[in-house]
Amino acid sequence: MKNKYQRMIALMRQILRKMHVPLYLHNKSNHIFTLHQHVIMLVLRQYESKSYESFVEWLHVSSDIVQMLGIKTIPHYTTIQKAAARLSSAMLHLAIGRFIGLVCPGKVFAGADATGFEDGHAASYYTWRASLKRSFTRMVAASDMVTQLVISAVIRNHASGHEISDFPKLFKSLVGVTTPRIFVLDKGYDAEWVHQMIRGEGILSVIAVRRHQDRSGHITRGRYRKQMRRSFDDIMYHQRNKCETIFSVIKRKFGSEIRSYNDAMKERELLYRLLAYNCHRMCMISCLLWMVSREPHADHIFIESSYISKDNAKQITRTDNNFRSNESDADSICVTLCFSR
Description:
This protein is α/β, with parallel strands linked by helices. It has helices at about 5-20, 35-50, 50-60, 65-70, 75-85, 90-95, 100-105, 125-130, 165-175, 190-200, 225-230, 235, 240-255, 265-295; strands spanning about 110-120, 135-145, 150-155, 180-185, 205, 300-310, 315-320, 325, 330-340.
């Protein structure tokens, strides 16, 4: 079995080839490093959480990585920095959406949430003593709740408004990549026009309804908001917690701070970080599939995947954790990983 770096490099090459990304931006360029090599090196830099100079030093002592990249000479750190500024954000957004098609080409179970990344390079104590305002970059990401892969993202620098303002752009980007069957959102997106936008594409929207405890006579307005208040599927909605898991993995593994100062470079740095996370997640999925594909033994791991439609809903019972999903009007996807001993 290949190590994680071999799988990441092979995966990024496969993604870039499917996108038909050319090897060089211009026929008369120096042709020392290909565009694919630049992208892979920038993704590896985010995966290792290193600066440009530290990453080049890491390449000097990683002869196997250099051989896998297929580069004849190690680039100067400014070469990688200029390549990061030269590559377009549209290509990176497209590359992020290509991962879900490798493991789940059909309709997915999507969820979205927002998080922030720190912009300042000053220490927290100095910021408090100097009464400085800490700025952050907001990222709203839509992910698949089954594979936990990021599908699309909207990044806004110096964000001041509510995250719901970025939802139309996020939803348009998500539908351009894949069509979800279910879309779960938290109370921050509880608005009738959000339901209408999602349901207009034939997608089931599951959004928690805000409850005004200080207003006893409050009336929930809107057709779909009333439906959510009358019959709300808690089990399906709680799958949205995996969005928090994705953000936690990104920040713990790759860091919660942004090293760049320019707003355009901040966006690209987060996009490279999302590519690094999707590569990391795909390596985990491929490792699991490799374990399952080996010759099974008694009382070993097995995977059960089933789909319940609203026309022929069936009762699914999972005895290991007393989970039971009864017949429901809403479509639902149940992917169960069962470990028996």
